[in-house]
Structures are given as C-alpha cells and as structure tokens.
C-alpha cells in the first residue's frame, strides 16, 4: 500500500441515495413535531415500556458485557476483512443454488429487484419489514413499474395503510396508539367493521385475516436480512409475528436485500448476535421466530433465491476510521428508546430512514456531511451517553457525533471536503468566510478558560449576571449570536459565587469534621498544596442547610 | 454472470479496499462469554419450562407411555392433523374416524405433499425438534425427517412440538453447535406474537397461535 496516501482514501468515497436525506433540517422538523402532543405521549409511553423490559432481560445475563465486547470485536473484524468476506459469502450462496447481485446504490438495487420480479411474471410481492428496502424506497420503485408490494409486518402494514412514514427502526408505527391504529384499519381494511375494538389482540387478529390470503397466493417475497454468514452463505431473519416465516417459506421466489455490512465471518458468530439482538431490541430473551436459509433447499421453501448486496454509501462510511463503527449497528433500536431527544422529537424529525442516535451518525455519513440537510443531524443530541451504554455492539455514538460536528464545522469553513482530496472551496457546503461572531466568541472563551487566573477574573462578573437576570432569576434575552440560545429558552441566573471561590473557603472542612468525629482523618494523605487547608470560618454566604 | 454484475462487484470491492486505506488490524474477538453450561440437567429442564410458560406456550411433561394420550387430549376428539413422514408413529394417538394424521413427505415436489391450502385447512401439526435452548426458551427445527419441511409447522394454527429431554441445553452457543448451519432452520420461542402496538406483547398473529411443547423423557 502506498504510504503517500496515508490518511486519505485512495478511492473517492461514493455516497448513498434514497430515503437518507431529511427534507428539512432537524431543528425545523423537530419544532414542527414537538407540537404534536399525541405523538409525543405515544412515543413516551412506548419507549419507556421497552426500556424497562430491556433492562430486566439484560440484567439477567451475567456475561452481558462480555457479549457486547465480543459483538464489537467481531464487527471490527468484519470491517477489516470485508472484501474477502463478501466474496466468500457470494461463493457459498452460489454453491447452494442461490444468485448474488451487487448494487452500487439505491437506484441499481431497485433496478435489479424490479427486473427479478418482472422475470417471474408476478405483479404482486409480499414483503418482510426491512430497513434496507425502506432506505432505497423500493416500494415506490415497484409501484412505478406496476408491481404492488404488500408490507406484512404489522407495524409496516399500519404505516403503509395509513400512508404514513416509519418513525422507529423496530416499531415503525410507534407514533400511533391503539385507537389511531383501529381507525386506520377500519378505513383501509374492507373486511373490518365497527365491531373491531382497539385491543391489540383484536387488531393483530384483523391483520391476520387481512394478510392470510396474500401469504397463500403470492409467489414472490422480498426480505431484508439481519445477518449473512460468509463461511456458509447462510441468511438470517429475526422476527416475531410469523409474517417473516410466511414470506421466507411459501413463495416460489425470494429476493433478499442486504447491506454489505451485515456480514459475519462464521456461523459460530451468530451465538453472540442472537443473544445481543432480541434483548436489546424488543426486550425479550428471544424473539418468537428466527429463520435461517442457505441458498436453495430442494423441496423446502423458495426454489428461486436471490441476494442483493447493497453498498449505497456504506463504503463511504467505512472510509472514515473515526466514524466507521456506525456500520457495526445491528438495528436493534435500543439507542432510540433511551434517547431524550428522540423521545421529544420523534422519528419523523430525523427525516432519514434511520432515526434516533444511530441515525444521527449513520445518515450524514451515508450521504456525506456536505449534504446540507443532513449536516444538522449530528447536533440532534444532548451527548448524554445513554445510547452508548445500551448499544449491544458498543458503538461510541457520542464520540462519533462530536467527530461529525467537527467535520461539519470544518466543512463550513472550507477546511475539508468529502472527496478526500485537498479542500476545494467549490465543493464545500458554504463558501469560506471571515471569522464569524461565533468564532470570535469561541476564541475569547478559549482565551479565558485556558488560564486559571483569567477564569477567576471572569467569575468576578457573576453578580452582574444576577442583576441582568432580575427577580425571576432567569436571563431571557442576550444580544448578538448568543441570542440564538435565548430565543428558545431562558438561562438561569448565575450563582452568587463560583464553585472555585466557594471551595477555596471549604476545602479544609473534611479534615476538621473527621477530627471532630474522632476518626483517623486523611491526614496521612499528603496535601500537595498546603493552601488547601482553609479555616472553616472563611467568609461564605451559603446558608447552613446547604452543607 | 452479466457485465453489470461484474462491473458493480468490482467497483464495490474497489471502494471498500480504498476505504480501508489505514489497513485496520483489530484484535480477534475474545469469547469470554459463557459457552458451556454449569447447571445440572434437571435445573436446565426447569428453566426451559419456565421460559416457555412465560411465552404463553403450553408445557407438558410426558413419558413415551403417556405421550400418545397427551397428544390426543391436545388435539381434541376431532382433528385432522399433519405429521412429517419421519415421525415416530409410536408417539401418535390411535386413529379414529374423527381424528386422523396426514403424513407429509418432507418434499414439496412429491405428489403426496400437502399444498398450502390443504395445510391451511388442517387443525394442527405434530413435529419433533433438533435442540432446545433453556436460557432463552427456544426450540430449533432443522428440517430433519421427524420435523418436516418448514411449511407444515407454519401454516396450521396449532403446533404440538415434542422436545426429547436429551436435546435440551442451557445456552445459545451450545444449541447452535448442535445444528447443521446449511439446513433450513426455524427457531421458535413461544407462539407467534407482536409488540408493534404500543410495544405490548400480544400472542397470536400469523404463525401458529397455539404452541404446545411436550417435554419427553
């Protein structure tokens, strides 16, 4: 490998297309969604239910952390050996009577799949819920070619019948409650009537009746895949309802769309992911059904089996060593369920097929951070870290968010572009400009905060802030660029005194209390700064009960 | 293979190789998680039973002698049910005018194989199983002669599944080690269910809505 190319991809990354872009930047989309109180209540209820279930079943496994580490390590291996693993996978699928197709982008995948369906002569297909086919907007493409695709997963069916968009990776209809779902069914399913209740049991029964005939009569199915095993050519679909089994078993032709990152090296590796995924995803010890198939099994299931391997920007994600672990994602959606931003804004605000924390790092990398709309996604986070804690494959989402914010800022300043070559202003998102007010502000903050003495001086200004805040102890207006903050919220008045000053007056108290209690104090711990010990009666204005 | 196939494949592989410009060399995965059970056999069986009940499956413990009676009871007096051709017929109850087993040859290409509509019209299916994982309450079917092809354990609404006690293991790694990877595998953890409405689990959607597991030993 040429060392001259160090740090730069030798091949220019090619980004993805399809349902990966937000129509409007996240801040605007989120503002609109925040007004939908019903949706927020629905999401809050659902995410809190699933959080509790997940925590209980994760707690049950003594080796959860070991499983997470193994999952993370296996995925790193996959990324490092991806070309060989993909070729091995193709060879094994082919040897067992399946056909492998390669799609550079959404458009090519749609073309391949439509061609395969047309070759069967069928104008109907049944589908298993799949993020990859959502991403490439396959249903729209099929429709444009006279092919009707029926979603068979209950939530996807609700979304499809409601002419809605998915808002969650696992439960795309999470934003709808049972009453809203009943209304959709009543309106869209001719076989239902007013006797249909809003009980989930009745709604599931209605879906069963609605889809039964489709399952028995449709000759082509389209699925995604949770895992593809390189060593054997085995594909895996994890599901609950049995609609997956129906699609994978009864039709004559089966077309599976799989992102190239879904490969695992060995069959043995599934022992890790089949433990991590269901517990993280639905909060169950195991999902009701998991199907595995390897090419064609004569006399059992589809006899015409295809796999479409999809790039659509994944190789571009891989080209950034600091961001590539976003490809480790196994689409469990645990990060959505714990995210305070997702809980308030909902999945639609993210625009892309991939919402929530994982979407905030995956979508802008798939499309390139220079994509104007997706550049706001890495900011859709409070960086609280809850997503990292629950991620079954330990993707450090907060770290990647910060990295992408940095990429975005540098893009805005013309310091980088996405073709990996030296920054060319023509390719940057916004033309480079003179230092902004924000730049100057940050420079100033850096000057103050980098010196203890300057910081202490600055803190002397705190009482001034209290004056600005007034009686309600809130600063509701600030001038200039920082005013963007106070447009949306108040800033609490600063404290009377900084922590640094307060500590200077109280640091010695621990020793004195211990001495008063007659305990052996930490006196033998050497104080490297004699000035730490201060008299307890040093001036302070904190009320007694504060201590 | 077509030119389009070759071109697309070559380009994707070139993109990936280009993306790995830093030649990452991660350490191999450490498999320090539990891979073999430390529990006694009886405890493992109890765990499986507990998990299955939690999933709202019916669980029954039988001996070879009591098994046909239990299956008869679960089927009811009147039932047409399908069985894989390779099933041990000693397990099955006596045929009556109203209760009849239909053997499926485990190959859809055989003329005597049941079509999907015939399967949709039968009341139940009785199969054996390859291995079961207690910790997750999961039964593995792998298309062997006494388990049948996938369609027969999917379309009928009631699945009676026999789990011989010697096929029960505690952990997922132990279970996966006992199956043939290239076989058509169906892992079953309770009856068909959905969590799609308000994330509340509801049993019974498209797969068999009733699952009875018979622990045989």
Which key phrases capture this entry?
heterodimer, A: 547 residues, alpha/beta, six-stranded parallel beta sheet, four-stranded mixed beta sheet, 24 helices, 12 strands, disordered N terminus, disordered C terminus, B: 217 residues, Rossmann fold, FTHF_cligase-like_sf (chain B), NagB/RpiA_transferase-like (chain B), LUD_dom (chain B)
Characterization of this structure:
The complex is a heterodimer of chains A (547) and B (217). Chain A is built from 24 helices and 12 strands. By secondary structure, chain A is α/β, with parallel strands linked by helices. In chain A, the strands form 3 sheets. Chain A has a 6-stranded parallel beta sheet, with helices on both faces. In chain A, strands 8-5-6-9 form a 4-stranded mixed beta sheet. Chain A has a two-stranded antiparallel ribbon with strand order 11-12. The longest helix of chain A has 23 residues. Chain A is globular. Chain B is α/β, with parallel strands linked by helices. Chain B has one domain: Rossmann fold (3-Layer(aba) Sandwich). Chain B contains 5 helices and 12 strands. Chain B has a 6-stranded parallel beta sheet with strand order 1-12-7-4-2-3, sandwiched between helices. A 4-stranded mixed beta sheet of chain B has the order 8-5-6-9. The mean pLDDT of chain B is 96. Classes of the chains: A alpha/beta (547), B alpha/beta (217). At the A-B interface, helix 2, helix 3, helix 4, strand 1 and helix 8 of A face helix 1, helix 4, helix 5, strand 9 and strand 10 of B.
């Amino acid at each position: 490998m040429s060392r001259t190319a160090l740090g730069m991809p030798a091949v220019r990354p090619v980004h993805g297309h399809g349902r990966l872009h937000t129509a409007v930047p996240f801040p605007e989309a989120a503002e609109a969604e925040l007004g939908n109180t019903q949706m927020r209540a629905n999401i809050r209820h659902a995410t809190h239910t699933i959080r509790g279930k997940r925590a209980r079943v994760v707690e049950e496994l003594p080796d959860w952390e070991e499983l997470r580490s193994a999952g993370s390590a296996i995925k790193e291996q996959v990324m490092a050996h991806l070309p060989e693993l993909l070729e091995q996978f193709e060879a094994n699928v082919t040897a067992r009577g399946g056909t492998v197709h390669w799609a550079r982008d959404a458009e090519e995948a749609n073309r391949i799949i439509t061609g395969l369906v047309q070759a069967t002569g069928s104008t109907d297909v049944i589908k298993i819920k799949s993020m990859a086919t959502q991403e490439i907007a396959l249903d729209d493409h099929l429709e444009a070619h006279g092919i009707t695709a029926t979603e068979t997963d209950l939530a996807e069916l609700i979304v499809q019948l409601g002419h809605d968009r998915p808002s969650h990776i696992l439960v795309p209809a999470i934003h709808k409650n049972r009453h809203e779902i009943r209304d959709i069914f009543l309106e869209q399913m001719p076989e239902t009537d007013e006797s249909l209740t809003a009980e989930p049991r009745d709604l599931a029964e209605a879906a069963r009746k609605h889809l039964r005939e489709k399952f028995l009569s449709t000759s082509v199915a389209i699925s995604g895949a949770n895992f593809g095993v390189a060593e054997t050519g085995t594909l895996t679909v994890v599901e609950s309802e049995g609609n997956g089994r129906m699609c994978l078993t009864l039709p004559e032709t089966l077309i599976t769309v799989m992102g190239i990152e879904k490969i695992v090296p060995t069959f043995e590796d599934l022992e890790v992911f089949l433990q991590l995924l269901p517990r993280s995803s639905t909060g169950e010890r195991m999902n009701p059904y998991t199907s595995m198939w390897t090419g064609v099994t004569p006399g059992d299931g589809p006899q015409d089996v295809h796999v479409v391997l999809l790039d659509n920007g994944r190789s571009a994600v891989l080209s950034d060593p600091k961001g590539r672990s976003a490809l480790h994602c196994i689409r469990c959606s645990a990060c959505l369920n714990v995210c305070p931003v997702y809980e308030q804004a909902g999945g639609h605000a993210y625009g892309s097929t991939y919402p929530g924390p994982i979407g905030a790092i995956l979508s802008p990398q798939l499309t390139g951070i220079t994509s104007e709309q997706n550049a706001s996604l890495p900011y859709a986070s409070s960086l609280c870290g809850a997503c990292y804690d629950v991620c079954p494959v330990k993707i450090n989402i907060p770290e990647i968010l910060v990295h992408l914010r940095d990429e975005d800022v540098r893009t805005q300043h013309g310091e980088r572009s996405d073709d990996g070559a030296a920054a060319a202003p023509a390719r940057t998102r916004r033309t480079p400009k003179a230092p902004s007010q924000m730049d100057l502000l940050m420079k100033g903050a850096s000057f103050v905060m980098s010196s203890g003495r300057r910081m202490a001086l600055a803190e002397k200004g705190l009482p001034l802030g209290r004056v600005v805040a007034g009686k309600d102890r809130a600063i509701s207006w600030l001038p200039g660029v920082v005013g963007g903050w106070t447009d949306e919220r108040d800033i609490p008045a600063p404290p009377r005194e900084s922590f640094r000053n307060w500590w200077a007056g109280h640091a010695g108290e621990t020793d004195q209390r211990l001495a008063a209690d007659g305990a052996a104090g930490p006196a033998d711990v050497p104080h490297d700064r004699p000035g730490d010990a201060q008299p307890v009666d040093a001036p302070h204005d904190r009320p007694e009960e504060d201590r | 293979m077509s030119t389009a196939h070759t071109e697309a494949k070559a380009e994707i592989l070139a993109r990936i190789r280009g993306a790995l410009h830093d030649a990452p060399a991660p350490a191999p995965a450490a498999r320090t998680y539990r891979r073999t059970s430390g529990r006694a056999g009886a405890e493992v069986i109890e765990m499986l039973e507990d998990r299955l009940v939690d999933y709202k499956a019916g669980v029954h413990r039988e001996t070879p002698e009591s098994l046909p009676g239990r299956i008869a009871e679960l089927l009811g007096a009147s039932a047409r049910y399908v069985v894989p051709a390779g099933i041990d017929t000693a397990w099955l109850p006596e045929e009556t005018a109203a209760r009849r087993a239909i053997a499926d040859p485990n190959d859809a290409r055989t003329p005597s194989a049941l079509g999907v509509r015939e399967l949709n019209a039968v009341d139940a299916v009785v199969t054996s199983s390859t291995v079961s994982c207690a910790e997750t309450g999961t039964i593995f079917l792998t298309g062997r002669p006494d388990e049948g092809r996938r369609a027969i354990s999917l379309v009928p609404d009631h699945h009676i599944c026999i789990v011989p006690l010697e096929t029960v293991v505690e952990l997922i790694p132990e279970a996966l080690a006992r199956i043939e990877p290239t076989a058509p595998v169906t892992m079953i953890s309770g009856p068909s269910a959905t969590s799609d409405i308000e994330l509340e689990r509801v049993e019974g959607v498209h797969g068999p809505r009733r699952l009875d597991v018979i622990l045989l030993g």
